[in-house]
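Design request, tokens follow.
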């Protein structure tokens, strides 16, 4: 956490060194700052499952993970409205709106960094559960164990591809729904017609409701333990239905021509996918145990970034062109197709709760079989005599 804080603090600070205007030899600092900020992404996204197991009991872990994962989305939601509003308003006043924006982001980051450096202990005084204090596999062995875990890879592919492509899609929403399609990025509220055609408000509300849904389903998963697969399948197939409705509305297919159809379907689809995000992280660390939570969540985050990269590559390969703005809408099919494929693949995921099983054992000394480099080994978790003890089968 401290490393990520330093990186993002330096990254946002470098962007403030650019003088007003862009005609400068120092503009490379903007790129360097953005690279440092991007490097923090995997750290931030993979941290919540680790923090939840260290600080919260088993009955609250999914809720805690949900809070951590959706917190990042809250900043994204603010960006949909805050960035265009700042840039536009300060430009009209004769100032550089972009420069004011990067200074605002730096001071927000600095304030949070001060709080983290002042007090951020690694562990609570008392472990909240048995699994929080038991040994995990070393890094090399954990990678080998994860690579041989079929269900773990199904979860990572489903979660990484669906969430990653959605992240890439939402980041260029104003390009996909451009003026050629009758949309704009106006943040002012004039009429209902202009409101439902504003990509700024569409992105903002989609993300906010996704945050609320993520928190709600995180709590629901804690109240209904060992039902994550059912919740995930329900959310993914509902998401496919909503974004299919969205595509039909954007292309104004017969019977789906109502002005608010695209707006409502996009908000609903985004909320369902947002609710699935913390469930993917919790399910992946459960099925991968005793692989460390940071490693399991890190693999999922890596595939998330790869999914986003694939979406951007497809877009840059000829879809996003100023000469043919109407082509951008075709990227909606990439979104729907990828989520549908992930929903079908998730059906074959066999849910297991190895970590939760450890916490529910009365004596705290259960054993389980894991596969490490094609050799079956039985690991005795949580024994008081030697938590690292390994027995060959």
């Amino acid at each position: 956490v401290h490393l990520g804080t330093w990186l993002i603090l330096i990254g946002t600070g470098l962007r403030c060194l650019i003088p007003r205007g862009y005609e400068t030899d120092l503009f490379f600092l903007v790129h360097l700052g953005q690279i440092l900020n991007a490097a923090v992404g995997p750290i931030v996204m993979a941290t919540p499952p680790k923090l939840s197991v260290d600080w919260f009991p088993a009955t609250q872990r999914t809720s805690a993970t949900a809070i951590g994962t959706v917190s990042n989305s809250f900043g994204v939601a603010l960006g949909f409205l805050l960035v265009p509003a700042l840039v536009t308003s300060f430009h009209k006043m004769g100032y550089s709106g972009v420069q004011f924006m990067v200074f605002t982001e730096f001071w927000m980051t600095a304030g949070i960094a001060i709080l983290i450096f002042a007090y951020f202990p690694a562990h609570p005084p008392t472990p909240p559960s048995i699994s929080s204090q038991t040994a995990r596999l070393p890094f090399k062995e954990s990678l080998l164990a994860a690579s041989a875990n079929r269900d773990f890879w199904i979860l990572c592919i489903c979660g990484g591809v669906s969430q990653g492509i959605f992240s890439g899609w939402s980041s260029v929403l104003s390009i996909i729904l451009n003026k050629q399609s009758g949309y704009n990025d106006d943040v002012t509220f004039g009429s209902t017609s202009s409101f439902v055609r504003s990509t700024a408000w569409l992105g903002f509300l989609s993300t906010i409701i996704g945050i609320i849904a993520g928190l709600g389903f995180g709590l629901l998963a804690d109240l209904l333990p060992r039902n994550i697969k059912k919740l995930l399948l329900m959310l993914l197939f509902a998401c496919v239905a909503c974004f299919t409705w969205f595509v039909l509305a954007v292309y104004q297919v017969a019977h789906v021509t109502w002005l608010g159809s695209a707006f409502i379907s996009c908000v609903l689809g985004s909320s369902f996918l947002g609710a699935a995000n913390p469930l993917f992280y919790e399910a992946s660390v459960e099925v991968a145990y005793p692989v460390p939570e940071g490693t399991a969540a890190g693999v999922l985050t890596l595939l998330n970034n790869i999914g986003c990269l694939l979406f951007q590559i497809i877009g840059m390969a000829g879809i996003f062109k100023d000469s043919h703005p109407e082509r951008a809408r075709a990227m909606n099919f990439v979104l729907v197709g990828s989520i549908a494929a992930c929903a079908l693949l998730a059906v074959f995921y066999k849910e297991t709760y190895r970590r939760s099983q450890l916490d529910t054992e009365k004596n705290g000394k259960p054993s389980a079989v894991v596969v490490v480099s094609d050799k079956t080994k039985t690991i005795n978790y949580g024994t008081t005599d030697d938590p690292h003890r390994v027995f060959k089968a």
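Comment from the thread starter after seeing the answer: thanks! The two ends are 38 Å apart (CA to CA).
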